Amino acid sequence: MKMLLHPLSAASFWLTLPASPSSLGTATAQSLAKTVPTERTAAYLAERYPFLPQPYHLLRPAGRRNATELFHFYSIPATWQDAAFYQIAPGIFAPSPEATLVALAKHLSFHELALVGSAFCGNFRIAPLSPFGIEYRHPLTSTADIRTYLTDHPSAGGSKQLSRALPHFVEGAESPPEILMAMALALPSKYGGSGLSRLFSNWTYLPSAKAQAIAGRKMLRPDALASANGKLVVIEYDSDAAHLSAQQAKDDEAKRLALEADGIKVISIRPGHLKSSSYMELVALEIYAHLGVRPSAQSASYAEQRRKLFQVNRVLDRFVLSSKRC
Predict the structure, then answer these.
(1) Are the C-beta atoms of residues 208 and 264 closer than 8 Å to each other?
(2) Residue 243's pLDDT is what?
(3) In this structure, are strands 124-126 and 199-201 parallel, antiparallel, or unpaired?
(4) Best label site of 16, 32, 66, 252, fewest CB within 10 Å?
(5) What is the pLDDT of residue 61?
(6) Within a 10 A sphere around the Cβ of 40, how many other Cβ atoms?
(7) Residues of the chain with confidence (pLDDT) below 50
C-alpha cells in the first residue's frame, strides 16, 4: 500500500507536524505503485494522522478514479513526474513544504495563501490537543527556500500565484493571530492592508541596561515592531489563552515596562480587536502618527480587499480537525 498525498491533505500534515519528519527516505511518482485505496487505507491514515480532514486528497501516478466519501483523486502534474516525495510514514508520501505551497496556490485566494504560507514559515504548529491550540516548532521552510524552489521550477502550476503572495509572507510569527495582525497592518492597500512597509515580526531587540533590569532579560522579541525616522512602535498580541498563566502575565508586563523605559511606544492588540477592521485601521493611524509618517493612500480596491482580508481568519481550521483558536 502506497499513498501520495495531494497538497490539500499534505498541507494538513505539514501544519500539524511536531518536528522535522523522520528520515524514511523518498520516492518518485513513477516508482509509486498504482494501488487502489480502500476503507482499510482510510483507517490507516486516520490512525496515523487523526487531524487530517476527510475526504482525503490523493495523487495518482496514472489513470482516473471517481471521488468517494473517503477519497478525492487527482492526476500527478507533469512537472512532478520525476520529483522526490517525502516518505512521512510507512506507505505514505507527501510533497515537500515548498512543493505543497506551489500546488496549493491554485486552490487558495491571495489572502488564504499568505496566511497558510506564513504558517509554514512560522515558529508554531497547529496542535488540536494543546490547551492553546498551538505549540512551538521550528519553521518548515523560509521565504528564501520557497524563492529558490520557484526559481528551480518556473513552470510549476501555481508558481505565479505563489510568487505574487511570497513577498507578503510573515516569517517568524508564533501564532496565527500574529500573522493576521501583521497582514492587517503591513499588506499594501491593494490587498486591504494599512501599508506599513517596515513591520518586523518577532524581531530581536536589545534593550538598555535599565530596561534589561526591568525585564529580567538581556533581549526581547516583540510580536511586531514598526520603525521609521529613528522611532519605534511595538505591537503586542495579548492572547486570552496565553494569560491563563500568572507568570506569563507577569513576564508580559515586565516586557512592556522595559520597552517603555527605552522610549518605545507599545500597543496591545486583543483577540476582539483583530476581528474589527475599523479598530485595526485606528491602530495603523496611531502607528503612522507616532512614527511621523504619512499614511499610504488607499487603492480603489481597498474596501473589497479589506473585507476579504478580515474573512480569512479561520482558513487554517479547514485543514485541521478539531483545531482550537488561540
Answers:
(1) no
(2) 45
(3) unpaired
(4) 66
(5) 67
(6) 9
(7) 242-243, 323-326
Closest listed residue to residue 116, CA positions, set 131, 133, 98: 98
- Cα–Cα distance for residue pair 111/1, rounded to 1 Å: 37
Place of cell 527516505: 25
* 254-276 confidence digits (pLDDT tens): 999 999 999 999 999 999 999 99
Rounded to whole angstroms, the Cα distance separating 148 from 141 reads 11
CA-to-CA distance for 142 and 118, rounded, in angstroms?
9
